[in-house]
Amino acid sequence: MADQNRVINIKEIVDLKERELNGANSYTFKLNLTLQSAQKCIGYCKYHYLEVEKFSGKTHLELERRLDLKYEGISIRTIYEANVFAFIQSLHALLDSLPYGLNIFYNVYPEIEAPNIGWNKDFISKYVRYSFYSSLKTINENETFAKLKSITNKVKHKHIIRIRNTYETLIFDDFTYYFGGETKNVKSEEVKKVLTDCHDYLLPKYIDFWNEVKNCKDVDLGYSIEK
User: Fold this and answer.
1) What is the mean pLDDT of each run of 10 residues along the chain (227 residues)?
2) DSSP label at 74?
3) Which of 82, 69, 54, 77 is closest to 160 using CA atoms?
4) Rounded to two decimals, what is the model's pTM?
5) How far apart are the first and last CA of the chain?
């Protein structure tokens, strides 16, 4: 499990932007809204992750296969599948919002609703002179993130990836994702492994990135990062 104590200090981030702009305005309002939304997404991810853990243990999986057991009229299969895909979609939404929030905080596109703000090389390259550039690039080039995007896009635009209950664990049907210039095939991968990789790496990486960006702005504005 990832460190549950990691948090985004929204107030400090927004306060820094207000100091930079000499007061609150539409930029600081949208920055606060974006970060508050991100904090909710983090909470959703943690909730769905715990629900998957709760309902995908061996006992629950056996009951689902043998007895089609239901909780308050909802089958165990529906519960764990709904939480698997809710976790994946919430985490993808969280990560996809990062470029938007970053551009508000460190503005490289004056029009903050510009369509080319996102996980693309042109946008990321605009931050090459900043101390957090390496971390931004690392997230963008992470293989787990590539796998997450592929699952989300398939579910959103094509179909849900089927999940097999083996009585012991949950297994995704085969799927593909694009990474490192090639299409990769995933065969019989455990659902828990995919979710744990995402939960234990991407969630803390997102939170740590915002703290790194905040510290960079501290330095830019001449404030000490020592608290």
Assistant:
1) 69 95 93 97 97 94 87 92 97 98 96 94 97 97 96 94 96 95 95 96 96 95 62
2) E
3) 82
4) 0.92
5) 27
